[in-house]
Design brief:
Order of helices and strands: EHEHEHEHEHHEHHE
Structural class: alpha/beta
Number of strands: 7
Radius of gyration: 17 Å
Oligomer: single chain
Bound molecules: NADP nicotinamide-adenine-dinucleotide phosphate
Strand order of the largest sheet: 3-2-1-4-5-6-7
Helix content: 40-55%
């Protein structure tokens, strides 16, 4: 049995790459996703092929009751060493046309999801006197992005939560950091005007989910034992 890493939104995209990377580093994985059972099942098989345990835990991170119901039995048995809050989506619209649903769903998944999941895990990490929490934020929350006022607000809020929680939990040897991806090739960015974005990226290409996962793996490893309250950007130099 290895230490446990709990990764939200890990069926596809960045979360999946994080889960596979952490499994390669020796972690057993609690693999959360929302509805794509097929993607989660193939991620589970890849993790088990690496010789690690994998427990799929499907729930919507924005749904408080679902989070509590799914985590309670798992937390009775084990305490994760690492929590990666990755689940999320964007619902873009120009601000004047942004609906209540677009505003609330994006805040609910990124900020509500962080709150519902992290508050259940933290007391267990505090008792264990160790832990790593990594929140996936975004370049959009660092600089602001037109058409994404909801998403930029949510991700900037998550940066604030990261820094505040790092201060609260430092004495318990729990490190809290964020990783801010730029333009990463996943389902989330399918259909965006790649050539437009490419012009602004010094490395001249979108990043891969694995390149974001590399930062998360570092933050969950012994190599980052004096790093807390930080935001590491994985953005190819975008918005330097
Ligand atoms: P993705 O390819 O669309 O994958 C999203 C994953 O999150 C899926 O596994 C999905 O589950 C899960 N998910 C979505 N909503 C959920 C919910 N309410 N509860 C539980 N799981 C949920 O997205 P991605 O590009 O990997 O993005 C992952 C994170 O990185 C997000 O927080 C995103 O904001 C952030 N990010 C992405 C980029 C980028 O360029 N791609 C840039 C900056 C930040 P199902 O498969 O079941 O739907």
């Amino acid at each position: 049995m290895g230490p446990v890493a709990f990764v939200t939104g890990a069926g596809r995209g960045i979360g999946r790459a994080v889960a596979l990377g952490l499994a390669a580093d020796g972690f057993d994985i609690w693999l959360n996703y929302r509805s794509d059972h097929q993607a989660a099942e193939s991620a589970r098989q890849e993790i088990e092929a690496l010789g690690r345990r994998c427990f799929p835990v499907p729930f919507d991170v924005a749904d408080k009751e679902a989070v509590d119901g799914a985590l309670a039995p798992l937390l009775e048995r084990e305490t994760p060493f690492a929590l990666v809050n990755n689940a999320g989506f964007a619902r873009d619209a120009v601000f004047g046309l942004m609906s209540d649903e677009q505003w609330h769903s994006v805040l609910d998944v990124h900020l509500g999801g962080f709150f519902h999941v992290t508050r259940r895990i933290v007391p267990h990490m505090q008792r264990a006197r160790q832990g790593r929490i990594v929140n996936i934020v975004s370049a959009s929350g660092q600089t602001g992005m037109a058409g994404q006022v909801n998403y930029s607000a949510a991700k900037a809020g998550l940066v604030g939560a990261t820094r505040a929680l790092a201060r609260e939990l430092g004495r318990r040897n729990i490190l809290v950091n964020a990783v801010a991806p730029g333009f990463i090739a996943t389902d989330m960015t399918l259909g965006l005007p790649l050539e437009e974005y490419r012009k602004n990226i010094p490395l001249g290409r979108p990043g891969t989910a694995e390149e974001v996962a590399g930062c998360v793996r570092f933050l969950c490893s012994g190599l980052s034992s004096y790093v807390t309250g930080q935001v590491i950007s994985a953005n190819g130099g975008l918005y330097m």
